[in-house]
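Issue: copy button drops trailing tokens. Both records pasted manually instead:
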Amino acid sequence: MTHQHQQLAAGRWEELSFLEQMANVGSEVERTIRWKSKNNSDYSRMAFERGLELLDLTIADAKNKRHLKELVRLREILADYFVFGNEYHSADENWHNYFYGFNFAARNKVAAN
């Protein structure tokens, strides 16, 4: 499998905290939404694929085992929203709100160090 994030897939991802991992996933989801709103389906799809790749790396990270149920559900709902029929009735605002906490916490953790 070819990874878009070669260094992260090679082990660097596991060095990041769960909060930092989720903040990075959220950044790709935000890019997906932004490109979708600009009607650029190619860039939106590429950002979504990068986001899924990072989420898959987060799921595979052993330290995140206690979050596994949430992570695989998140993957399912993201795919439903961006690729399939949006059966869960998600909206862009839901994703902004969901990932905001991770971004805020990761940023404050870095600022505190």
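Record 2 (pasted manually too):
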Amino acid sequence: MEDVAEIAVSSGHRDDNVILDAVGPETFTFDELVRMIASQINSRARIVHVRPRVALFLANLIGYVVRDVVITRDEIDGLMSNLLVSEVETTAPTLFSEWLAQNADNIGVRYISGLERRYHG
């Protein structure tokens, strides 16, 4: 988070319009990212690969139970289209893998609803 804040502050001092990617020095596939997080938080959850349509259906069921939107069709489409992959040079120096190792004890401790935070927080 500090990296993004620094990028925002330094960009705020510019006089021109600019679009910047907040990208760190590491790149992961979605599967690698999920497995790395699961390993760091000592999750015993099984990772199962399903078609995007099935994943969306299951996410909607979970979302109904937790009263939240877990993931949208547009987000799945973006992931499938590699829209989250940046081709620019690193703008944020923090290694996600190191940050994750340092913060693993705080990840997944409690569920925070994105909808609740957005509309009632």
